[in-house]
Write a structure and sequence with these properties.
By secondary structure, this protein is α/β, with parallel strands linked by helices. It is built from 16 helices and 14 strands. It has 2 domains: 7-193, Rossmann fold; 208-423, 3-Layer(aba) Sandwich (Rossmann fold), CATH 3.40.50.720. The chain is globular, with a radius of gyration of 23 Å. It binds uridine-5'-diphosphate-xylopyranose. Uridine-5'-diphosphate-xylopyranose (UDX) binds at residues 149-153, 206, 213, 247-249, 251, 254-259, 317-318.
């Protein structure tokens, strides 16, 4: 694609950096920009500031086509500029668009004939208001396209290169085509929509997936009452093609940078426009309660948590990422500390012995150290290494060999054979159908 203008990507977080590297992999020249000088310095040396499987390798392979910069001026030659900056929840529950607005203002100030493509998740209506701002700032040549991301952390590169669909929302057909064209070489259906529709597809998709998780978690809770096994229930449901097998793993609830914030933002968005989105209230509440149920399970077995030593296995919101945003572990650790328990934790991605998100928690160098002398272990994140752990050896070092498996990750039969008391999520009377 020699001779084409480079693609600009603002933001080098999980979405921006993966997009930049993947566009380079597709053959485009890319200018990747971030205001964080430390991140850019690391990237110039070939180091990714985040952990994402395969990212550093792809960065290395495509280094010749990517330049990194901290200056908006270096984006001058880019005709298409992706915005992939953070949109964290604000205190009101709405998405905080401060970073997005700052970037758009920088682009507007430089004017010219270019397309701003929004990858960050922004409330429905943002496109229209950004276009109004651009006009007001006299940057009428700067157009707007919405191209939401559907990348899962830990599988982001695969999701970018082999997506289920590509959604392009545009005010002007030609702008939408220009953006869709950047993805040529990728075998996926491209859906061209209006801007508000594209913005809504993103929120509706994430809210639906979160609803699936809260739904199966409630089914799991009922399974515990009636002696059914949620894993088999989910399998039986998932075979119905209208339901599908994905996102039906019961556990301690969803976390991460997207689901909690997007569900909240959609609820808020509906409320702001006068609609009370009842279902989402329940989805959010079920998710919050699900983390607390683990504390209840520990209390049932140990009676008192004061003075008990609890080992948390895994802290990140899911495996294969170093991301702790909205991780269930944060609430769980805080609750356990409030109950007077001693908390020792291990996560393969966290090296320091203390972490500001886990005050009063000792972070151990390995699982064995966290489990040593523990009254119970809670498996919080299903890191594959926990599947390979010598559970019999671990059980022998615990003061009480109790495992609460928050992800239904360890086979109950294996755990029991290793001498552990085992408690999963929604496994009925414990006599699992799968044993
Ligand atoms: C998600 C969306 O999948 C992605 O399309 C979007 O763009 C960003 O948000 P991600 O946050 O990386 O991606 O995580 P995902 O793999 O979707 O998992 C989210 C959370 O749900 C995790 O905490 C996970 O443990 C939990 N989960 C997922 C369940 O509890 N049960 C399931 O069946 C699936």
């Amino acid at each position: 694609m020699h001779g084409e203008a480079p693609v600009g990507v603002v933001g080098t977080g999980y979405v921006g950096l993966v997009s930049a590297v993947c566009f380079a992999h597709l053959g485009h020249h890319v200018v990747s920009m971030d205001v964080d000088a430390a991140k850019i310095a690391a990237l110039r040396e070939g180091r990714a500031p985040i952990y994402e499987p395969g990212l550093e390798k792809l960065l290395e392979d495509n280094a010749a086509r990517i330049t990194f910069t901290t200056s908006h001026d270096d984006l001058a030659s880019c005709r298409i500029l992706f915005v992939a900056v953070d949109t964290p929840p604000s205190p009101s529950g709405d998405a905080d668009l401060t970073s997005v607005r700052r970037v758009v203002a920088e682009i507007a100030a430089r004017g010219g004939d270019r397309i701003v493509v929004m990858k960050s998740t922004v409330p429905v209506g943002t496109g229209r208001s950004v276009v109004a701002d651009l006009r007001a700032q006299g940057a009428g040549g700067v157009r707007y396209v919405s191209n939401p991301e559907f990348l899962r952390e830990g599988a982001a590169i695969q999701d970018f290169l082999e997506p289920d669909r590509i959604v392009v929302g545009a005010f002007d057909e030609a702008d939408g085509e220009a953006v869709a064209d950047l993805y040529r070489g990728i075998d996926a259906e491209v859906i061209h929509t209006s801007v508000p529709t594209a913005e809504m597809i993103k929120y509706a998709s994430n809210a639906f997936l979160a609803t699936k998780i809260s739904f199966i978690n409630e089914i799991a809770n009922v399974c515990e009452q009636v002696g059914a096994d949620v894993r088999v229930v989910a399998e039986g449901m998932g075979l119905d093609h209208r339901i599908g097998p994905h996102f039906l793993h019961a556990g301690i609830g969803y976390g991460g940078s997207c689901f909690p914030k997007d569900v909240q933002a959609l609820k808020q968005l509906a409320g702001n426009s006068g609609y009370h989105f009842q279902l989402l209230n329940a989805v959010i509440e079920v998710n919050a309660l699900q983390k607390r149920r683990v504390v209840g399970k520990l209390k049932q077995h140990l009676r008192r948590l004061r003075g008990a030593r609890i080992a948390l296995l895994g802290l990140t919101f899911k495996p294969n990422t170093d991301d702790l945003r909205e991780a269930a572990s944060i609430v769980l650790a805080a609750r356990l500390r409030d109950e007077g328990a001693e908390v020792r934790a291990y996560d393969p991605m966290i090296e320091s012995s203390e972490h500001p998100l886990f005050p009063g928690v000792t972070i151990c160098p390995d699982a064995a150290a966290a489990l040593d002398g523990a009254d119970a272990a809670v498996l919080v994140t299903e890191w594959s290494e926990f599947g390979r752990l010598d559970w019999a050896a671990a059980a022998a070092t615990m003061r009480r060999p109790l495992l609460v498996d928050g992800r239904n990750f360890i086979d109950p039969a294996v755990a029991r054979a290793a001498g552990l008391e085992y408690e999963g999520i929604g496994l009925g009377d414990g006599l699992s159908d799968l044993d």
